[in-house]
Specification:
89 residues; mainly beta; Immunoglobulin-like; four-stranded antiparallel β-sheet
């Protein structure tokens, strides 16, 4: 897999920590791709899986998570892979 990364290619999750909701903003160069977002808890168990088509903003809600704590959000497509730590309060 050839990963494409440049200075402006970062995924942004705001606000972080998530209190009520947070917005995941995908980089412009991958928003047309077939993207998958997997969310894992601190034990490494997948707690949520999203298949995102032609979208560059996804909202996460506090109700999506069973408990407060540290989670990892993995964004992957054919050309992109990134994992970001998300704090849920």
């Amino acid at each position: 897999m050839n990963l494409i990364r440049s200075y402006n290619d970062n995924v942004v999750i705001y606000p972080n920590p998530l209190i009520y909701s947070s917005l995941i903003s995908l980089p412009e160069n991958i928003k047309q791709d077939n993207n998958y977002i997997d969310i894992f808890n601190i034990q490494g168990r997948k707690v949520k899986e999203l298949h995102v088509l032609n979208n560059y903003q996804i909202t996460l809600y506090r109700a999506d998570f069973n408990a407060a704590g540290v989670y990892f959000v993995r964004i992957k497509s054919d050309k992109y892979l990134e994992t970001i730590k998300l704090l849920v309060q």
